[in-house]
Amino acid sequence: MTFDNNALLAVLYGNHDRNLVRIEQLTNAQLSARGNQLAITGTPDDAGVAQKAIASLYERLKRGLSIESADIDAAVRFARSGAEGGDAESIRTRKRTIQARTPGQRGYLAALRERDMVFALGPAGSGKTYLAVAMGVSLLLAGKVERIVLSRPAVEAGERLGFLPGDMKEKIDPYLRPLYDALHDMIPAEQIAHRMESGEIEIAPLAFMRGRTLAHCYVILDEAQNTTPMQMRMFLTRLGEGSRMVITGDPSQTDLPNNQKSGLNDAVETLADVEGVRFVRLTSQDVVRHDLVTRIVDAYDARDKKSKA
Fold first, then answer.
1. What is the mean pLDDT of residues 30-46?
2. Is 20 helix (H, G, I), strand (E, B) or coil?
3. How far apart are CA 168 and CA 273, in angstroms?
4. Which of 33, 85, 120, 294 is within CB 3.0–4.6 Å of 248 for a Cys-Cys bond?
5. How is domain 6-82 classified at the CATH fold level?
6. What's the topology of domain 89-308?
7. What is the spatial distance between Cα 103 and Cα 84, in angstroms, rounded to a whole number?
8. Which ranges carry the PhoH-like protein domain (predicted)?
9. Least confident range of 66-75, 89-98, 236-245
10. Which residues contact 181 (CB under 8 A, 6 or more apart)?
11. In the predicted structure, residue 208 carries a pLDDT above the cut 90
């Protein structure tokens, strides 16, 4: 490969060529840089993946975007899958531009743009909640919705609200912390506080949804595998005029009693053929946390399949 911009090339390679080292680790190809030329050696498949990933990263730099470690991993994933890069599906928020980092995430973002109700099912770290919050923030900032409503069932690891210390806010905050964390990644803290005071951003446990009609807002139900069928039915029927709804969950990690059917699984079965509802299934290949998380998810999935067999 030959490059025409030495300034961008220094950024592409990284300090002490650390970006090239990472690409070598991910692709099993060998990279050798000399001046503005880069030689790639390896099997046709490995060398092809490395070449596509490097070309994608170089084009990203030419558009004025930065390169982080996660961007390198994403470029290799897209190159290996043969799909277009994730830059085609991105979300702009106050603090950052959020992009799909896997082909599965790209499909998820497309569904969030196109549908009024989306179910996202997948393992921890696959971006289900984070991307849903990002889309909600983007629509709020663009004036396309009036409010964001974030909700979770307060049932985790065998605990119940009544046994926890403090007032109601102190009781529910630990359950909603992942939603707060996602918001802080996208909006300055002082704006979050202001928008929560004004009601533009509302965070509430699922139990507080009964009897409401949610109009002109973006509604997210997180950890939906911990709902009962009755709670899920109640939540889905809150959808009002001009609103969108996203339901996220990992069917393999329910905290409900063993004899209680998950409302998420029940909804997947019941609404499979309902027009206007989109189901997105993410896998361990969409996990964008530490590499070890992907291997952990795969190990548990293999164990579960073996036990079922």
1. 92
2. helix
3. 39
4. 120
5. Ribosomal Protein S8; Chain: A, domain 1 (3.30.1370)
6. Rossmann fold (3.40.50)
7. 8
8. 98-301
9. 89-98
10. none
11. no
